[in-house]
Design goal:
The protein is mainly beta. It has strands spanning about 1-10, 20, 25-30, 35-40, 50-55, 60-65, 70-75, 75-80, 85-90. The protein is built from no helices and nine strands.
Amino acid sequence: MSLLTVLVVPYASADPIAVTEFRQQQVQLFDAQGKQPVERRDAASIQLPLEIADSLAGGFYVVKIGDQAYTVKKRTVRTNRVYELSSVCNNTVAATKAAASRGLGNGECE
């Protein structure tokens, strides 16, 4: 059995990556390491866009509000990051005549 899928996701802009919108009305800000909650603010009180200084492995973006560095959870914000998505699939199944291969399609990915 061979199932090959390749997904290429390059970042498509040279502009600095920034937070452009908060997904909730209240924003939980964490310390610069993304370990401890520091404070909760109204999203409307934070001026956007916020340039993203770093991306932490734990699912946080490092942003600077005023002179203070904070982290916000990636899933709670929208950014100006634009992706170009493309994929290539090769759905090949090796089976005996008595076997079934339901749901694998006919290699229609490109």
